[in-house]
Records
---
Amino acid sequence: MKSLVTAEDIKQLHRDGKASLDIVPSCTIITPEARDVAKKLGVKMLEADTSTSNKPAVEANARQAIKQAVEAKLPAGKHAPALLEQLIEKAMRELNAPVPYCDREVAANGVILVRGGSVKFGRFDGVPDQVVGLTDVITAADNSSIAAGFMQWEKCNFPWTLTYDEIDVVLEGELHITCNGKTHIGKPGDVFLIPKGAAIEFGTPTKVRFVYVTYPADWSISK
């Protein structure tokens, strides 16, 4: 079982005044965003001696990291402990899956080009028992006040309360957003604005793929 290091873990280390993190490469998954944040904040990844590694401790660290990441994604006060535990267990089972990524070109002046066709999807941990793909491609680690990424899924609906402003641009299929009992249907080329605080239901009766843009970029710690 591998431990997971997220961007939030690196930020917390920095807030605690720590400048390094001991890792066991063969037992650790570091997300691309975590590496970007570590470089930006000057947090070094120090490879530990694998002969002294402890499997129970590694699993405990992974569980704690996953718990923090899941809690950051779920609306504050909107989830039951049982749901949180279910999401943690699901994430633990998926730790050995490939880490999502995308091809990016970064110019000296900060301009970033993301190759949409290269995006590999991870699993969105905010929706239990559903296969919803999500990959962040622009984050706060890019010195941006906004974030962006891709989502896709087929034939499912799920409720969500936004703690940030979001714009969704439909690329393929249909994106259904239901609020106040009315369903709004977006098709390729259509744009949604969902304001902070809105309680909605995302869904599609077929399939959907879209780009999302959120403000602020670090919405998970701006509640």
---
Amino acid sequence: MEHRKTYIRHTIPYQKYEIVIEGPVSPSHLQTLQMHPELDAFRRPKDQHEALIEIAGLPEGRIILARENDVIIGYVTFHYPDELERWSQGHMPDLIELGAVEVANAYRSMKLGSRMISTAFEDSQMEKYIVFTTEYYWHWDLKSSGLSVWDYRKMMEKLMKTVDMVWYATDDPEICSHPANCLMVRIGKEVPIESEEQFDRIRFQQRFMY
């Protein structure tokens, strides 16, 4: 499957400078940038920077980022699901995971998360894909945000709805392990019905549910 990647760039005035939202970015471009020290939700900023470079180099991988000058202050990742997760079982070429969304604390009032995600879906780039995200409460920054689990869940749902992602049911044990966890999905306009049906079989594997 050919993965079309059309580079898109937006700018937002910010104090004396501007914030650039751009992507999908190349590994070589990422290597010229540095990570904001507050981007440590998943791993140390240096290690996460290396992970972003690796994802950007994948055929299907996409990194959309927000930066101030040469400092990355936020990013969104898209890639195939991890081989250890159920979502990879069908080896579907048109099933892409919206993996991580992170914004440095100092910039969280600027709606950079929704701006980056919206940029990823511009120019009909994602219409050939089923894009999904798994939201687990243990990944959420409840401490810094001051939000309850349920308020954070509402915030994440609102964020994903900016690109028409909707809640989907599943019997996945990890998602079912806590009521705040959820699966959100967007099915592109060019996705064949066969892929939708295959995704349904992946979502529900416990056939005898009462």
---
Amino acid sequence: MGETTRDLSNFLANYFIEQGMEPAIAHFLNMLINVAIVFILWYVIHYITKKVLLQAYHSFTDKTENTFDDFLVQSNFPRYVSNIFPLLLLIFTVPVIFEDYPQLLEVFNKAVDIYIIILIVLICRSLLRTTNSYMKTHERYRDKPIESYTQVLMIIFWALGIIFIFSELTERSVVNFLISLGAASAIILFIFKDTILGFVASIQVSVNDIVRIGDWITFSKYGADGFVTEINLATVRVQNWDNTYTTIPTYYLTADSFQNWRGMQDSPGRRIKRSLYIKQNSIRYIDDKDIARFEEYNLVGQYIKERQQEINDYNQKTGANKKYLINGRHQTNLGVFRRYALSYLKSHPQINQDMTMMVRHLPPTTQGIPLEIYCFSKDKRWEYFEAITADIFDHLIAAIPYFDLQLFESPSGDDIIKSLKHLVKE
């Protein structure tokens, strides 16, 4: 079998020699052609194997009820395994081609060994990711720090892979390499401390998906507020809104707290959360005359009728004394306005109706009672978000006097002067 294979590999060389070509040139040209043929075959086998294996595996997973095999597909396990068969072709054919070129054969063997090491690490990583995803589907493992253990094992596998690759390149045993590395570790840690911290942080940022290029982050400690434009081993570069740049050490993205707005950008809405401060002495019960007036407001007319009917039934049932409004239940102008603001949000075309929406009271302050507007705009772009927010509050501020309410506003110097002039005239 070996002789037959060797004869086939030298077929072109013999033909070239018969045609009068120099033997050295003929064998070299024969080697190049054989390498091209083998790599074409490798590509074809790789393509066919990947297609056939993936299709067969998908057919298999569709017929099983277990989800573990589905997670194997998500982690690219079949794709990595499909690389084994084309690799066998190279292992059995290339040494025959490079038989007369020991230096090239040595380079090829090292490349194959390194490729095998990387492939094993990728397969192990795929199995770890699959196990991690599969265990998260079980209720008893959801509150367990499985991902942390998975990350540690991934780092160990990559570290072992790197050690074996260096051992292969330097032609030293793994034990001797580890001994040499241990002796030099103190000096390496001292000289490359920042680089090592950055490297570890880069792995954590990538594995945990903490930051991506294009994310909007806010890191107050470093004055960063803008989009991430670059992530490298040592630093993360942020373009701020004023078009300045801030450079943050990668390590501090894992050591300190910062705000990543990616969740907002990926969500179906951007939050609006602002308050109107209502003067407390402008809040009162409303009477029949106010009710008749408020019923003409389209957004709250039906609500006031239904609410008033409910209150009248309750007061009649409990025998409340109508002489004083404090007896029984009554509507207030602030309560009606709060309902009006909520109805306005529900009718606004730029507000996401499927997300949380409310108008609520916050604890009273020295500036009055905060009436908080809480909702989400459909458009998340900054300029449009601000325009939508301004449109909502423009309307509500203008509507407040229609409910006999007043907004709190600290007096300015002109207000004080006018009050003093008024007192002087009196």
